[in-house]
Specification:
alpha+beta; two-stranded parallel sheet; 3 helices; 4 strands; globular; disordered C terminus
Length: 82
């Protein structure tokens, strides 16, 4: 695509540490989450939890649900999440 520069990076290490390090020059860190509800609270995984605690930038967690997946694709990929 014209005017779009793409960098490819394959980091190694604990994903939470890598994401926190990579977002140092960014305005915000946006992560997709598939947390679940337990006892009226949303439970998130270890990677999101690490980023929320250690990132020096704002962190936005976008929830992923099977319903949203259905609206994005016709392949039935959302079936595996039900």
């Amino acid at each position: 695509m014209d005017g779009v520069e793409i960098d490819q990076l394959v980091p190694t290490g604990h994903l939470g540490h890598v994401l926190v390090e990579l977002c140092e020059g960014c305005g915000t860190l946006v992560l997709g989450g598939h947390g679940y509800r337990k006892g009226g609270m949303t439970v998130v995984g270890a990677t999101i939890s690490h980023c929320l605690r250690h990132a020096a930038r704002p962190v936005t967690v976008v929830p992923f649900t099977a319903e949203r997946c259905d609206s994005l694709t016709d392949t039935g990929a959302a079936q595996q999440f039900r």
